[in-house]
Amino acid sequence: MNPSFCLHGLRTIAYLSVIATSIVGTTCAAQAFDSTADSLRLIPLTTINSSGDGYMADPQPVRLDRANALREVIISGTTHAVLQCSFPVLAECFSSRSLRVTGGSLQSMIAAAGGQITNIQNIDLFQNDRGEWHAAVTIGIHTMAHPKHWTVVAHAHPVGPVSPDTPPTDWAADSLLAGSLTEASNGNYDGKYYEEDGRLYLLYVRGIAPPPALRNEIVLQPMQTETEIASVPASVLLTPGDRDGELNSEWYANTQAKLVEAPYLSRVAGKHLLVYSTGAYLTEGYKTGVAWSDSLMPVGNGRYRKVLLRDAGNVWGQRGRLEVRYLLQSQKPQWPNFVGKQVVGPGVAAALAAPDGQWWLYLNGFAPGDMPEGADGKVQGSHRRPFGLRLRMNVPSDRRVGEVSDSELANWILPQ
């Protein structure tokens, strides 16, 4: 692979078992930015203070019960904090509170299996219609037999007094939901709960091919309860590539890997919208795509349909081939929805409707000029920060996903 973007530094993505070689000291050639960068109205959601409060890696809106959903937006993620903003959403309206997660009773199970917890990430809070709070968390594990850590998805419960009107900030893991405590495997991360029509699901990412040509898939697992998986297999929603094969835009930097990750589901006009990310998340190549389905679970062996555009200008290196029309990207100034002047590596995004019917995209990325490198020369992922962007939804209730052209599908969701 010969990537055409400038790598600002890469770190080992241990939870995916991908090692991306660091490229340090590379100088990006001056690039011409199109007017798209100035026309999309991205706003910062937090103020970054001198202590670093306000940064948020992997922000995802929390599913709330009806009363809370009408009042505010709550965001959690990999950064051990919870963000809150009462409607209406405005620039820098989110306040931040620290959040604590421990291995809880799951830690003794991990120790009994000969392992240790290395890190806790993807802390995705969830509130059901009874006002109860739960969390799906991604936990890193390693053992003497497998010193490079792998990840599992676990359930966590609140510790101490709980109010239905306030997200708990103290959590303990207790149940394994996806992955193994003894067998190292790729994937099993980005876990979050999804509820629709009274049914509960676990949405997460799992591996389907090992390194170095790592591949993964986004799946939806029916659940009996927040801690118990239903006795039916998960359905695959999305994989790398499209109907014509693999895509150049999905390379994970300079590795052989291609990934789709950071899924978030929404229902719009009877359709199902999957927002996802691809590329290497500490580089300009990380970006946000969307895919659609008429049903929550794809029929047969189908997948959610990505929004595609023909690459007539050879932007991605395969002239005339269909490529993904990303909702946001900072990699190619000549491709739609380039936002490189406002945010670098826009990803881990989610589409959510406000009570007034206005749709918003919540995401993270680096502010230009704020991608510091550590002593090892790798970009510090902790400097990702949350942004918001209004969306225009033009989803027809009388058209099916498979019936419309690529250009029609591209107009179903547009950044403002």
TrEMBL record:
It comes from the Bacteria. Residues 1-32 form the signal peptide. Keywords: Signal. The keyword Signal applies. This is Uncharacterized protein.
